[in-house]
Amino acid sequence: MSHTVDAVVLDIEGTTSATDFVVEVLYPYARERFGALIAGRSGEPEVARALAGVRTELGEPEAGPARIEQALNAWLDEDRKATPLKTLQGLLWAQGFARGELVSHFYADAVPALRRWHAAGVRLYVYSSGSVAAQRAWFGHSPEGDLRDLVSGWYDTENAGPKQEAGSFRAIAADTGIPPDRLLFLSDRAGELDAALAAGWRAVGVRRPGEPYYEQGLRGHAEARTFEEIDVAGSGA
């Protein structure tokens, strides 16, 4: 499975990292701290925008702190990809990583591959439903240290758009300045791979046993069990 490209764009959950870690460690961490965040940091512009976003999604412009916290917890239970939720989670996780209370998870094959591709002159980007703040904290506090220097840019549902819409991938291509057919997207979700292909990208599904979408399969997309099965070379190779 060989690709000569200018950049690889990475999903996180189920692709570079275990979804179980997010669900079992990070979600409870955020759940325990939503109330304090709403009470103590609502005057911060990013927090204020997210809280306004929660009210908009609820259709309740006067929703108070207790109602907002209730909604956030309900969305967590649903694993809903709501941008305001992801923003607030990301702020809390970034705080936890900075304090040394959290260390992110990467599959054993992921970091060596990322370093290998980076050394070969391939640019790396992240596109996750988690906020940019959460992405940066995740890569900045890995078990192998700070990996942020490997990444050329960060995209989420706020600055790029929903991950199962082709327009989001077109927006990323335009922002990076890389032709779509020189971009390779790696994800564990068939709908996201569909959207990337519809935007003219290359795409490979990463199908790891035990991940939530493993049993669903990838609807005919090229697939790999680990990054070791994906051979990536830079355009100058």
Describe the structure.
It is built from 9 helices and 8 strands. With 237 residues, the chain is an alpha/beta fold. The protein has 2 domains: 2-17 and 105-234, Rossmann fold (3-Layer(aba) Sandwich), CATH 3.40.50.1000; 23-98, Transcription Termination Factor Rho, Rna-binding Domain, Chain A, Domain 1 (Orthogonal Bundle), CATH 1.10.720. The strands form 2 sheets. The protein has a 6-stranded parallel sheet, sandwiched between helices. It has a two-stranded parallel sheet with strand order 1-8. The protein is globular and about 55 Å long.
Which descriptors apply to this entry?
single chain, 237 residues, alpha/beta, Rossmann fold, Transcription Termination Factor Rho, Rna-binding Domain, Chain A, Domain 1, 6-stranded parallel beta sheet, two-stranded parallel sheet, 9 helices, 8 strands, 44% helix, 14% strand, globular
